[in-house]
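Class, discuss our next protein.
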Amino acid sequence: MKIYCPYVGVLWKRRLIVLYKEIFRKSIHLCAAFVPFFLGRFYKATMALLLAAAALYSIAQFLSLRGVRVPLVSDITDMAARERDRGKFVLGPLTLVLGIFLCALLLEPRAAAAGIMALAFGDGLASLAGKFLGNLHIPYTGGKTCAGSLMCLTAIFVSSFCVLGSARTALATALCGMFLEALPLKDFDNLLIPITLGAIAQFF
């Protein structure tokens, strides 16, 4: 005789929703990997579009907090928002765009590309690995996992090596990236990771 437990069913449903949101949110992160391509060919236009995206998103969020929904922007934000973001200004997309913009503005093209790729792949894949494979948590990191940190290290090393062609620089960038990603910075890692790792790449 089968025994149905509604509580277990609700838990699985909630877990699936969390995983779906994480996949959707990090797919946006991964799309940032295309930005260096456009920066290399249409620098001014790409920078202008990044600023426009940041402004449009900010306006949409302020309107949303006042009960006014903006087509498409509000829908995408709702699909990607974490539970902790409900009823608040969702910072993730804004810090993502600003991190990319500042990285491209302040650093040389190759270093900026390395920083942006580290953000796209390192932070993006680390979160997915942590959600799907992360059973062992790292203390004092706000829930970060060993699986996520190892994925972050690997992803940043590979992406940095592809951009810079130096294993030494890629390793230094990856180790620093793994440390930064493990810090409980919430959405502000989108600002810190690309600029810091791009600066390391430029220094080396």
User: Anything to note?
Assistant: The chain is about 75% helix and 0% strand. Residues 1-5 have pLDDT under 50 and may be disordered. The CA atoms of residues 55 and 138 lie 36 Å apart. The longest helix spans residues 6-31.
